[in-house]
Amino acid sequence: RKFIGQFALALAAIPLASIIYGIWQGRYNFKVIRQKVYFDDLPDEFDGFTILQLSDVHSGSFDNPEKIQFGVDLISEQRYDLFVFTGDIVNTHAFEMDNWLEMFSKIKNPEFGKYSILGNHDYGEYVDWSSQKEKELNFEAIKAIHPKIGFNLLLNENVKLKKGNSEINLIGIENWGKGFKQVGDLKKASKGIQKEDFKILLSHDPSHWDIEVQNNPYNYQITLSGHSHGMQFGIEIPGIMKWSPVQYVYKHWAGLYENAERFLYVNRGFGYHAYPGRVGIWPEITLIELKKKVNS
Q1: Strand pairing of 199-202 and 222-225?
Q2: Is 56 left (phi over 0), alpha (psi -120 to 50) or beta?
Q3: What is the pLDDT of residue 7?
Q4: Shortest CA distance to 185 belongs to which of 118, 253, 259, 260?
Q5: Which tens digits make up the pLDDT trace of 23-39?
Q6: Is residue 110 a contact partner of residue 80, using CB atoms and an 8 Å limit?
Q7: How far apart are CA 177 and CA 164, in angstroms?
Q8: Which of 64, 67, 79, 88 is nearest to 32 (CA)?
Q9: pLDDT, tens only, 242-272
C-alpha cells in the first residue's frame, strides 16, 4: 500500500512539474526548425531560396528581455533570403510592443526584405472598448508597428520577388479564420498574378488553407500560417509521435502538410498567450528552403 501510494503521488507530480517547467524554461526554449519543400514548378533560379518564418510574437505576454533578446539574436544568426512574419504581433493593445520595438527592429534584413501580415489578435477583438473610435485608433497603431520594426505589412496585396530572369509572388492577406475575423480577401490579394505563377501565401490561420486555399484552382503552391501555437502543450518525437489537444480543434496545427502538391506550413509560434509557458511544443523559428524537384 505504501509503494502504491508513493507511486501514485509521483505519477501525479509529473503534470505539475511539467507545467512549472513550461513556465520557468519551456516558453524560452527556442528551436530552429529546418524544412525543405520540393516543387515541380519552382523557377530554376529560386532553387535553394530560403525563407525565415516567425509567427505569433504576442509581445503583451513578454516579461524577460534577456530571454527574448536571445530568441531575436537566434533569428538573425540564420542565413535566409526572405523574412516573413505571419501575424499576432500583440495580444490586443498596440502599446504592448512599445518596450520591444528597438529589439525587433534589429532583426537582420535579408536580400529580399522583411514582410508581415496581421493575425486575429491584431484587430483588438477581445476587449471592450470605450468607443469604436478608440478601437480604430488602436488598430491603426498596431499597423504602424510594422514599419517601425522594418516589416513591410501586406494587407490583401502582393509583391513580386525577382531573381535573375525569374520571379515568384509573395501574397499577404488579412486574417481569415473559421470562427474568427474574416477580412482576408484572397482574390484582391492575388490581383495581377496568373494561375501558372509561383506563389507563396501568408495567411495567419491554417483553417483558411483548409477551406479556401488547398483546393483553389488558382494554385497556391505554399501557404505559411501560425495561430494555433500547438496549444503550447503536447508531445512531439520526430518520426514517432506528434500529439496535442489542439488537434481536436485544428486538422493542421504544426509543421508541414501537403495536398496534391500544395503545401501548408504551420509555425508553432515565437511567443505565448494565456498559459504563460510551453510544454513539449517549443517556441519556433522556421527556416524553409524551397527546392526544385528533380524528375528521374
Answers
A1: parallel
A2: left
A3: 39
A4: 118
A5: 768 899 999 999 999 99
A6: yes
A7: 36
A8: 79
A9: 999 999 999 999 999 999 999 999 999 999 9
Number of alpha carbons in the 13 Å side-chain half-sphere of residue 14: 6
Could you give the CA distance from residue 159 to residue 168 in angstroms, rounded to a whole number? Answer: 9
Write the single-letter amino acid at 285.
Answer: I
The owner of cell 538573425 is 76
**How much is the average pLDDT of 52-75?**
97
Whether the pLDDT of residue 3 is over 60: the answer is no
Torsion angle, CA of 91/95/101/107, rounded to 10 degrees?
Answer: 20
Q: Which three cell numbers stand for residue 97?
A: 510592443
Match 519556433 to its residue by C-alpha cell. 284
Q: Is the pTM of this model over 0.90?
A: yes
Which residues, in sequence order, are CB contacts of 4 under 8 Å at separation 6+? none
Kindly write down the DSSP assignment for every residue of 231-283, as one continuous string.
GGB-EEETTTEEE-GGGGT-SS-SEEEEETTEEEEE---SS--SSS--BSS--
Task: Give pLDDT, residue 50.
Answer: 98
Say how far apart CA 58 and CA 92 lie, in whole Å: 9
Mean pLDDT of the chain: 93
Contact 85, 110 (CB under 8 A): no
Cα separation, 152 vs 162, in Å, equals 17
Tracing cell 508553432 back to the chain, one arrives at 268
Complete DSSP assignment for 108-142: ---TT-EEEE--GGGG-TTS--S-HHHHHHHHHHH
Q: What's the rounded Cα separation, in Å, for the pair 271 and 267?
A: 11
3-state secondary structure at position 26: helix
